[in-house]
Amino acid sequence: MGFDFQHMMELWPDISKAFGETLYMIGVSLAIAIVIGLPLGIVLFVTDKGLFLQNRFVKSVLGFVVNMIRSIPFIILLVALIPLTKMLVDSTIGPAAASVSLSVAAIPFFARIVETSLREIDKGVIEAAVACGATPWMIIKDVLLPEAKAGIVQGITITIISLVAYSAMAGVVGGGGIGDLAIRFGYYRYDNTIMIVTVVILIVLVQILQQLGDWTSKAIDKR
Amino acid sequence: MISITNLTKDYKTKKGTVTGVDNVSLTVNEGEVFGIVGYSGAGKSSLLRCMNLLERPTSGEIRVDGLDLTKLKGERLRQARLKIGMIFQHFYLISQKTVGENVGFALKAAKLPKDQIAKRVDELLEMVGLTDKRDVYPAQLSGGQKQRVGIARALANNPSVLLCDEATSALDPNTTLSILRLLKKINRELNITIVLITHEMNVVKEICDRMAVMQDGRVIEEGDVYDLFSDPKAELTKEFISSVVSFDVPQPILAACTGSVIKVQFKGAVAGEGIITDTVQHFDVKGNFLHGSIEYIQEKPLGLFLMEIQGRPDNIHRAVTYMEGRGATVEVISNGI
């Protein structure tokens, strides 16, 4: 069974609904990843040895938690977080439910990316700010974030694209979205048309996101 | 202005403890330009960075403007740092902020209201000659211009002290000179005490009043720049000075000399008195210059000449004694054949 245009058109309402669900899952979990992951990444960085808020205890506890979550395979995290999901959204299927596990996975991922971007900043620039008598908050707001913003935007791009891949996996537990469609039709029913359409949609989506991310990152960099 | 007592800074490395600064005591007077010279690894940078507590000393005391920095922490240390400006070899400007914003950053640290920040930024940029660059990003500036921004930032909160960490080492000779002139102007007009570290003796010669030479974490010689230039005691000091006033005469030339070769040094006003002319006229000797220069240190001349003197040995001896009597320092390098 090859590509069947007629069949694709028949299922088009399902495809567009699934696409909407994918965007919803990515949007929600990205927003949560940024809101929690950005401060977390900053804390991981500034509590490091030799920096202005050096704190070994905080650094090692947070570092351990981040590593722990990141080392759990996403498919297992999906299942393991079912109780939490039920508690938060009162359901274990659908895009809202899938967003919970996606967020939990994306937060430490993004936090590490933020930490790495901050590490790229010349330590001298931070030191010069300390020598100016700046407060820690000023250094974060006026030195760290502006200096790392191009890298952080790149990091957001990487996070979104990883979320596209993870959201497809969410289909396994009935999470909805393009990935769910691909699994239900393409995988279980050998429906090649749907398989091809979903894969093409994902490819196009990732390409567009990457281009957009690269362009934004470049546009805001003053170096 | 700055008084350092028994300052030691140890660094813990994998191979054990390394002493960066070893029991240094030093006083920098108000209004002077103080230079610390030494090769890399001598501990001069660590010492300077202790002066605003970017590095906390292992032991010892640092008083800046009467305040013992080592006793300060958090907010009070931050307040103290507002009054200690610092500039760096690699400038360390915020690359994503404009020149004006970079300078304004220091004023924001002092919690100045917005309208006053704008006014003061303009003042500072005018002082360093960058009025037209206010809205430009650092990437579009030359090295010298970046350092001027660094200076404007360091002076934002009217500090009493300016620390310069190899501030001209990344600049070409012409730019170095213009930055040094700016520093001197700041020192004189704003009465800001300057401490600078460098490995370039030219910098010291150009603007310093007093200097210290560091080796292996210790200060091995300290004093008035003119005195140290004219009469260095330590080997290392001599080595540094010879990088500015060097007397390398090609060997074949020296070998061809038939008379005595002497090195004559004149200090201060003596350099202008024509001693050599008098000597040659009074005694039956002939003088032949091999090398010579007059350096101006703190606007006082320091003359150094290498010359060959031909004549009868007793006349040469009398000529040398005469020059010494007139205040010159004479060193006989080789006697005539």
From TrEMBL, chain A:
Database matches in InterPro entries: AA_ABC_Transporter_Permease (IPR051322), MetI-like (IPR000515), MetI-like_sf (IPR035906)
Keyword flag Cell membrane: yes
Record-annotated ABC transmembrane type-1 domain positions: 19-213
Record-annotated membrane-spanning stretches: 23-45, 57-81, 93-111, 152-178, 190-209
PANTHER family: ABC TRANSPORTER PERMEASE, D-METHIONINE TRANSPORT SYSTEM PERMEASE PROTEIN METI-RELATED
Source organism (scientific name): Planococcus liqunii
Family: Belongs to the binding-protein-dependent transport system permease family.
Keyword field contains Transmembrane: yes
Protein name: Methionine ABC transporter permease
Gene3D superfamilies for this protein: MetI-like
Membrane topology: Multi-pass membrane protein
Subcellular location: Cell membrane
Predominant location: membrane
Record keywords: Cell membrane, Membrane, Transmembrane, Transmembrane helix, Transport
Xref: Pfam families: BPD_transp_1
